[in-house]
Amino acid sequence: MRLDWTLRMASLVLAIWVLCALFAPVVGLHPTKVDLTAILAPPGERSLLGNDDLGRPVLARLLVGARTSLIVGCLVVAVSAAVGTLIGGIAGLSGGWVDALIARVIDLFMAFPGILLAIALAGVMGPGIDNVILALAAVGWVGYARLTRAQVLSLVGRDHVTAARALGRRTAMILLKHLLPLAFAPLLVEATFGVAAAVVAEAGLSFLGLGVQPPDASWGNMVRDGVSYLLVAPHLVIAPGAAIFLVVLSVNLLGDAFRDHLDVRLRVS
Amino acid sequence: MPDPLIQVQSLTTQLGDPSHPLRVVDGLDLHIQAGETFALLGESGCGKSMTALSLMRLLPPSGRIAAGVVRLRDTDLLRLTEAEMRKIRGGRMGMIFQEPQTSLNPVLTVGDQIAEAVRIHEGRSRAQVAGRVVELLRAVGIPDPEQRAKEFPHQLSGGMKQRVMIAMALAGDPELLIADEPTTALDVTIQAQVLRLLKDLQRQTGMAVLLITHDLGVVAETADRLAVMYAGHIVETAPVADFFANPAHPYSRKLLESLPAAEKRSGRLAVIPGRVPRLDAVFHGCRFAERCASVMDVCRTRTPAWLEIANGHGARCFLWDSEVAGEVAKAAETPHGAVGTASLSSATTDAARSDERGAPLLSAQGLQVHFPIHHGVLRRVVGHVRAVDGVSIELREGRTLALVGESGCGKTTAGKGILQLIQPTGGSVRYRDQELIGLSNRRMRPFRKDLQIVFQDPFASMNPRMLVGDVIGEGLQALGIAKRRADRMRRVAELLDLVGMDPEAARRYPHEFSGGQRQRICIARALAVEPRIIVCDEPTSALDVSVQAQILNLLKDLQARLGLAYLFITHDLSVVAYLAHEVAVMYLGRVVERGQVDEILDDPRHPYTSALLSAVPVVEQDKRRNVIRLDGDMPSPSHPPSGCYFHPRCPQSFERCPHSYPEEARLSETRVVSCHLTAETR
């Protein structure tokens, strides 16, 4: 893959994100330690990114919050991609009333703004990171299902699929060997964009108080807590906002590059 | 000799990166006289289309003309500005393409598209343009031209669209018409119509035609002179009659020998070993040397010069060079090289088997495949496409049944219906006394092993993400024949060897192979499960003649060795004559005539069979028949005509034909015809 400097930067940002998520909890940070002498302290020598309304260090909270966004981003994509691919594959392959039913259900979900549904679900299930993941996956599978169904429908008429049926392959094996590997490239690209979407959605839900609960840190609830002090201490919002922005941008850039990379390979073959 | 209409001298066209270009046309010389048909003959990738595009200066963005002169009468085409060239294109030089489907704009009416060409080149007033459009449509033989001019391309059949393309090319009264594979995408009966039309138009207008084709039969029937292209340059030029009587270049000879035909049945077809050289290479000797049966030492070191053999007949080959050749020329006269006789002779076993007429291995009776047509919100069924509408055939061990018909007649659907890859809606398919129709997937699986299929397109019929070894071993794994990978791979190596490929191929991906090699891999995949019957669905129609010969030889050998039964689905009657034992001719979902191959080909009884046979272009002058012209196109299988399906196009239809579908009449033990005429005469 050709790596120009934007892609290098994007990879670097993502590497830092993952490292923070993995190691922040074990290096002895104190993200929940209240320090009443440092309330709303601006960035400076005391702490690199300043302190929040309870005097907690913003930098430490940011690094620990990376863990939440990584877990949510990856798990939401993994669960929704797995469920969606399976459902879409079954729909495309079986046809008939099964396909018609699944297609209608997908349309129904598509007609509803996803984040609204996730808010409703998270509200019903109660706050907490596991419920956020479930709520986002419950609305996220639809995109993968629709994509997989379309891919399968376009691939199922190909001669090599017919040949596999003539050789006595079972339907499940045809799906696994002949359809999903060929539908993989667009799904992979959809998944990279899904990670970025999930990070934003988690921040959104936490901002509304449905995600990670205080005193634990997440980028979303850091923004929410900081909003009240926007005029006196803007660093409380800017730091987590910039983190979200950088991660989402980087994931999107790499997703783009990845798609181009796959396209080139297809052209060569 | 009068001055030529168009004169091309050492034309060189390059594609791609200038530092490492593909020389797709490399020093090409030709000239075409006014009013003559000049054919440019060659296999895919030899540069014939690029030559045509160079003449029109319509090269793709990465292409450029590096050297040469193209002179149309007194005009040097390569020196014209782009604006001047635009006046020539569609004016003094017209062009028609292979795919009429994609050459017309789907959102404009046919009349508008022709009118555009008329306006640009004739500068007539609006009212006159409409009149000229109708005149052009009438000239290309489109019935009811006023009405047709208002229709869109999708409302016309393929043959009609090609006529419209010709009408557009004629709009500027061209002196030269370049026809790039004009009939390759069309059925034989339609091809005969279009070729006849081109001939008639040429007689009326006196234009010259540059016909680009790979079909030797088309050349023999339509061209006056021809040039054979190989690897970017011309290797032989000759008047057509001379060429087919005495081809001079070894490549031309091989091409002619590799054509399948009835009289070659007992032997193998000639093949050309190796592949076409890459065009980015720098050639030191003859470009054909690596594949030539009569290669000499000098061929590899020196480039052969152009030699005039007889009047108007020249070749680029050392065999005709009196200094070099001498006694070597005699050896080259032997028509079949070592390749022709080397492997096992299928002839004897073939003859021995042909008398057996045991119980059929598989028999289909009244097979029907109807597809419902849904309409409206509730998806009610409003009709059926009768793709296959009562087909009865029998397959016997070691024999080949050819299922012949034009596109859309349901032959592929019939093949898939027999294998239960499409669920038939009626009739019966019995394999060894077991009814196959209605079996569930699970109950069908034991029979899958015996019934296999090979497809037309060797590119789409393999999963591009699977290794060749896994592709071939798929059936062994799926049916649990060889569960361990090591066993499977051992068997795969044997199979690759059987189809004439290096066992190393198993570790590579399908895209690394050429079309012919891929088709071998597909055959190996079908053979892996040791089938009794293989349905071959046009296995050679996507391949060049010389590669087709390899595949046909392979299929014939395998049949002799393994006693396979083939259901060979094709539209190519010369392949039928070479390979088949029995023939069934299909029209609009039904078999109209079936019998032994020689019975059908020598003495067709159904008017459709006669018309089909007469439309096939043949190389030998004395075997040519008068083309029986069929008017119109095949009707839609959703609304077949009343009575005999063929009667609206039948030149011999009489009053009974529109009223009832003719019963099958058994003429002999092997021969069945469905026609009122035969019932009448008996």
UniProtKB/TrEMBL annotation, chain B:
Query: Could you tell me which NCBIfam families the record lists for this protein?
Result: oligo_HPY, PRK10419.1, PRK11308.1
Where would you say this protein principally sits, based on its record?
A: membrane
User: Which source organism does the UniProt entry give?
Assistant: Thiorhodococcus mannitoliphagus
Instruction: Give the UniProt subcellular location, in the record's own words.
Output: Cell inner membrane
GO molecular function terms noted in the UniProt entry: ATP binding; ATP hydrolysis activity
- In Swiss-Prot or TrEMBL terms, this protein is called ABC-type dipeptide transporter
Q: Where is the ABC transporter domain?
A: 6-256, 373-613
- Pfam families found in the cross-reference section: ABC_tran, oligo_HPY
Q: Which GO terms describe its biological process?
A: peptide transport; transmembrane transport
Q: Name one GO cellular component term.
A: plasma membrane
Q: Which family does it belong to?
A: Belongs to the ABC transporter superfamily.
Q: Which SUPFAM superfamilies match?
A: P-loop containing nucleoside triphosphate hydrolases
The membrane topology of this protein is: Peripheral membrane protein
Which reactions is this enzyme annotated as catalysing? a dipeptide(out) + ATP + H2O = a dipeptide(in) + ADP + phosphate + H(+)
Q: What is its EC number?
A: 7.4.2.9
What keywords sit in the KW lines? Answer: ATP-binding, Cell membrane, Membrane, Nucleotide-binding, Transport
Gene3D superfamilies documented for this protein: P-loop containing nucleotide triphosphate hydrolases (3.40.50.300)
The family database entries (InterPro entries) matched by this protein are listed as: AAA+_ATPase (IPR003593), ABC_Ni/Peptide_Import (IPR050388), ABC_transporter-like_ATP-bd (IPR003439), ABC_transporter-like_CS (IPR017871), Oligopep_ABC_C (IPR013563), P-loop_NTPase (IPR027417)
Tell me the leader sequence span: none
